[in-house]
């Protein structure tokens, strides 16, 4: 990606802070109860937990997509001032999100190129759109005719590549990856982790990676947090500084998440 991404300093300042979050879908039985978690700028935190415990709900709260019934969210030191379309644009665009299921997250009527360009168009960056779209697409390994296809004409892996590019389009200072690689094969997983890591390390963005693949998150992130420890206290395990060149084991397969240019990988 361009050097423009690298313009932001590696600050180490406040990135994402969730304090005392209670949230869910039924006020009488919230999914999250008094949950706190923070990720500093430049830091990669993996949130681990079993299926159904509330990880995606937490990710949606962090991305200002789900309003908690109690607690506060701070982005880059500023308290969130609204949720969904009512959030101020500067706060909404400070967070880039990648969801687990790209087919639910992508407009089926858009080509992959238009999908990647969506946030640029929505925020009026017309002059920048074509060049930036091409650059983002190349970074995630999508080129040529693939970019003219619609979601139903591509694989899950190819669509998730476009969704990762879309999440990076506005150069977010905070990235939330909710089971980003859950549906992907080993080589696509490695390629997309490498893209996110490359972006994070060059920009100093804060990363919250949510999942249940402990081995992957321990290799990818600076520390992991077990979901069960988040209520009324925080416990974490530190790792070797998110070494993106490490061998990553996931699902029994050895993955290489090194800085291989994603464009060189087959778009899976
Ligand atoms: N839109 C919704 N309406 C009602 N209940 C929901 C909704 N979304 C999730 N839930 C429930 O909230 C709980 C937490 O769901 P969530 O998706 O946050 O868990 P998760 O840890 O991300 O699970 P997984 O790892 O399987 O994706 C589950 O019991 C789920 O059934």
UniProtKB/TrEMBL annotation:
SMART domains xref list: AAA
Residue ranges of every copy of the ABC transporter domain listed in the record: 16-254
Disordered as annotated region, ranges: 232-268
Family matches, as Pfam families: ABC_tran
Alphabetized UniProt keyword annotations: ATP-binding, Nucleotide-binding, Transport
A single MF term (Gene Ontology): ATP binding
SUPFAM superfamilies cross-referenced by the UniProt entry: P-loop containing nucleoside triphosphate hydrolases
InterPro entries the record matches: AAA+_ATPase, ABC_transp_ATP-bind, ABC_transporter-like_ATP-bd, P-loop_NTPase
Family note: Belongs to the ABC transporter superfamily.
Protein's name in the database: ATP-binding cassette domain-containing protein
Species in which this protein is naturally found: Streptomyces axinellae
Highest classification ranks of the organism: Bacteria, Bacillati, Actinomycetota, Actinomycetes, Kitasatosporales
């Amino acid at each position: 990606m361009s050097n423009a991404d690298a313009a932001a300093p590696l600050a180490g300042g406040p990135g994402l802070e969730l304090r005392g979050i209670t949230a869910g879908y039924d006020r009488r039985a919230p999914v999250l109860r008094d949950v706190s978690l923070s990720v500093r700028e430049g830091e990669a935190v993996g949130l681990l937990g079993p299926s159904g415990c509330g990880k995606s709900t937490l990710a949606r709260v962090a991305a200002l997509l789900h309003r908690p019934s109690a607690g506060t969210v701070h982005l880059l030191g500023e308290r969130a001032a609204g949720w969904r379309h009512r959030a101020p644009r500067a706060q909404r665009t400070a967070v880039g999100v990648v969801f687990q299921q790209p087919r639910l997250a992508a407009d089926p009527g858009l080509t992959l190129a238009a999908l990647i360009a969506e946030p640029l168009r929505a925020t009026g960056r017309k002059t920048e759109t074509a060049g930036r779209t091409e650059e983002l697409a190349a970074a995630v390994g999508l080129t040529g005719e693939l970019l003219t296809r619609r979601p139903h004409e591509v694989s899950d892996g190819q669509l998730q590549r476009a969704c990762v590019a879309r999440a990076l389009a506005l150069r977010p200072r905070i990235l939330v990856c909710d089971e980003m690689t859950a549906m992907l094969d080993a080589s696509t997983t490695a390629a997309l982790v490498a893209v996110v890591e490359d972006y994070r390390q060059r920009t100093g963005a804060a990363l919250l990676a949510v999942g249940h693949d402990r081995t992957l998150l321990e290799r990818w992130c600076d520390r992991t947090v077990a979901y069960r420890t988040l209520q009324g206290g925080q416990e974490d395990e530190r790792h070797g500084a998110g070494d993106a060149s490490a061998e990553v084991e996931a699902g029994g397969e050895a993955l290489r998440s090194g800085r291989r240019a994603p464009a060189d990988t087959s778009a899976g």
